Automatic annotation (TrEMBL):
This is TonB-dependent receptor. Residues 24-406 form the TonB-dependent receptor-like beta-barrel domain. It is found in: Cell outer membrane. The keyword Ribonucleoprotein does not apply. The keyword Iron applies. GO terms for biological process: iron ion transport.
């Protein structure tokens, strides 16, 4: 591979089907809600730099998912403004991931261009059950919110064609695990338009299996990651609620961090040590009858801890791949970024609505690799500008004409590198297209609605 090669002819096809049903039953002091949702998404593409398939209609990297979610929850109002929320949900996810006829070479014998087979497959199934509760207790100008969430997971992997075959035989494995996550929030209200808040929360990234089993240990599951977050911020409203200003100072600690580590091509997901992040988020928005605008900005810093677990070695095909990320800034973490949008309502009546939408995004410099800090692996600052014209018909149908990346900014979403050079995958280039969709269909008499969102784009 040559230095700085962007794939000049990447392709990606997507077929997505979504359906959801929401029902609400209203009682005197409570509301019972049920949400059922189904989604099936099939993708086929090739974004690997310098690697070209013969038939773009059936060859390439596929990532197909089938997902079903069922949630039940009840919201109860008590005297003196106390509220509670109790609920449970079930989630099923089937992931079918792999490659068909991608000319990567062969993992045995010798060293191919990408070190693994271009025909491989990994299938993962996940069942998750959760029970959650929240309670809100007001006291004068104070408000206290307490939450607790229990989750149980069962995840299984079936790899009939490993990428490292025949060095890695076909295998199956499964794991069950559970965790409990608390959350505490304290709010102080100066009045109905200005509040301060403090939040402590614990969340968990589930354990699982590598979707791309590459190393000798990928037949074993990686462990769950614990995340602890502190936030202090405000919610403010001005001009009769038309102008909103929200801000938050945050600090985050991650333990048993799930990270892609290794050197060059020889990487896989593993549990390493601690990682830290801190910064400030700002959200500013304004809306009136014909115009709406917003600004979301972040200034922050994220880095790996200086502990021994952030140094180690992976074994890939019997060969060691050493990593050491101690004290280094994490990849894909710019110190400053923002998104700002501006929408104009051009025309509106009971059956028709025409809107012109703008979205501008900025990112400062960030690293493309966790521990290689060469200048060739640094993404320079860039700006993206997207526009769209959205026509809604009879409140249930939508036609959108769009243009993306009008600045035609060149930015990388991933990089492959070794001693022979670097190869980059480009972000979304300038493109234009259209999509049509069917939006929510609501039956107010029976207090439920059916939402079917289907979009086609080119």
């Amino acid at each position: 591979m040559q230095n700085k090669i962007f794939n000049k002819s990447p392709f990606n096809t997507l077929q997505a089907h979504n359906a959801s049903v929401k029902m609400e039953y209203f009682f005197t002091e409570s509301t019972l809600s049920s949400i059922s949702a189904f989604q099936k998404t099939d993708t086929l593409g090739n974004s690997y730099p310098g690697i070209f398939v013969q038939d773009v209609s059936k060859d390439g990297n596929y990532y197909d998912t089938t997902e079903f979610v069922q949630e039940l929850k009840v919201h109860i109002n008590y005297p003196q403004g106390i509220e509670s929320l109790l609920g449970m949900y079930y989630k099923y996810l089937l992931l079918d991931n792999g490659m068909d006829n991608v000319p990567t070479g062969n993992a045995f014998p010798g060293l191919p261009p990408l070190y693994y087979n271009g025909n491989w497959r990994a299938i993962e199934q996940t069942h998750a059950i959760a029970f959650f509760s929240d309670v809100y207790i007001p006291y004068k100008q104070w408000g206290f919110n307490l939450g607790l969430r229990y989750q149980f997971y069962n995840t299984g992997i079936d790899v009939p064609l490993p990428p490292m075959s025949p060095l890695m035989p076909a295998y199956k494995n499964s794991i069950s695990f559970h965790f409990l996550n608390p959350r505490v929030s304290v709010m102080y209200s100066f009045n109905s338009e200005h509040q301060l808040f403090f939040t402590f929360a614990n969340s968990t990234k589930p354990a699982g299996f590598s979707k791309f089993p590459f190393t000798d240990t990928d037949t074993l599951p990686y462990k769950q990651e614990q995340i602890y977050t502190l936030e202090f911020g405000n919610h403010s409203r001005f001009l009769l609620q038309s102008l909103k200003f929200d801000s938050s100072l945050y600090a985050m600690i991650r333990e048993n961090t799930q990270a892609y580590v290794g050197e060059g091509y020889n990487k896989s997901i593993a549990n390493i040590g601690k990682a830290y992040a801190f910064g400030v988020d700002i959200e500013l928005s304004y809306e009136n009858s014909f115009l709406s605008t917003f600004l979301n900005a972040n200034v922050g810093y994220s880095y790996f801890g200086d502990d021994e677990k952030n140094k180690g070695v992976l074994i890939i095909g019997g060969n060691p791949s050493i990593y050491d990320v101690r004290g280094l800034r994490t990849r894909f973490s710019p110190r400053a970024s923002f998104n700002t949008g501006l929408d104009f309502l051009l025309f509106s009546n009971s059956n028709h609505r025409l809107t012109f939408s703008n979205l501008l995004s900025f990112s400062s410099m960030y690293y493309l690799d966790d521990f290689n800090r060469e200048s060739e692996l640094v993404q320079k600052p860039y700006v993206l500008w997207d526009i769209s014209l959205i026509y809604k018909l009879f409140k249930h149908y939508e036609i959108t004409f769009f243009a993306q990346n009008l600045t035609n900014s060149r930015y990388a979403t991933s990089v492959l590198w070794d001693g022979e050079g670097r190869a980059y995958t480009a972000g979304n280039p300038f493109n234009v297209g259209a999509k049509v969709g069917v939006l929510s269909i609501k039956n107010t008499k029976r207090e439920f609605w059916l939402s079917v969102d289907t979009f086609y784009s080119c």
